[in-house]
Amino acid sequence: MRIDVRNVTKKYKDTLALDNISFTLDEPKIYGLLGRNGAGKTTFMEILSGHILATGGEILVDGEKPFDNQRLTESVCLIKEGNNFKRELKVKHVLRIYSLFYPTWDQELADDLIKEYNLNLNSRVKALSKGMASALGIIVGLACKAPITIFDEPYIGLDAAARRKFYEILLEEYESEKRTIIFSTHLIDEVSLLFEEVLIIQDGKLVLKEEAENLRNNTCAVTGSAEAVEHFIKDKEIINKKELAGMMTAYVYGSQEQAEAAGLSVEGIPIQELMIHLTEKKGA
Ligand SMILES: Nc1ncnc2c1ncn2[C@@H]1O[C@H](COP(=O)(O)OP(=O)(O)OP(=O)(O)O)[C@@H](O)[C@H]1O
């Protein structure tokens, strides 16, 4: 499904959470939506899911507005970091409700995931540990197979092994049937290899939208004498640079081969680092 974000602004009283952002997500891909605390990510995901209205501008999903739109509600699933389900319900009832709601629901996958995460179907949501509540969110997010599935920091309390299992299954499911997955997380290093495209929001504005492969291939950290590095970067777009005792490291757009050819020491820039530097540059 195509997502058109057109001049979207969201104000909460005095806070400008989204500041006139526009972009298009036109292919089923795994998108990483990144940014510092309070950047506006959750606000964006809630507008896209039809949970709240924008103050100005619009988000269109296949040309339609998501708010109060039954057809789109069945096509978009948002899993947040907590409070996804009514506390009094039993796990089996949550699963039943979602299975009836989403026409694309995959019960076989849900059953496999329940076993994988050892969930007790008769537990009430309020009795689940944080990790178990996250596991339930992940099961719903994966098994609903909604054409647009959004995970907003979905795994609070899940241990590293359970998170890894989630990434594996997410990827398997995605490979077998492509859909749009928007993934927002602060554990960027852990998941960045899943991302096909990266969006970075800072202070309600979009500061980067780029294919992850382009970022990996076209950005690098070059280190050498300050003089050599300055010479190499003089015609390049610089993300950040640091100098210590005559040695300089610069993060730049440019291929690693070029820097190696110039005799500099070169490394890739992890997406997490890139996010930190890009958002620092914007005054974070
Ligand atoms: N319901 C609300 N009422 C008032 N202000 C809000 C509300 N929701 C969000 N905000 C404010 O809007 C801004 C953007 O918040 P948002 O939750 O979208 O950011 P985020 O990028 O998801 O942050 P985090 O990574 O910390 O979850 C913040 O300044 C936040 O305090």
Automatic annotation (TrEMBL):
Pfam families: ABC_tran. Keywords: ATP-binding, Nucleotide-binding. Residues 3-228 form the ABC transporter domain. One of its GO terms (molecular function) is ATP binding. The keyword Cell wall biogenesis/degradation does not apply. InterPro entries: AAA+_ATPase, ABC_transporter-like_ATP-bd, ABC_transporter-like_CS, P-loop_NTPase. The keyword ATP-binding applies. This is ABC transporter ATP-binding protein. It comes from Lentibacillus populi. The lineage of its organism: Bacteria, Bacillati, Bacillota, Bacilli, Bacillales.
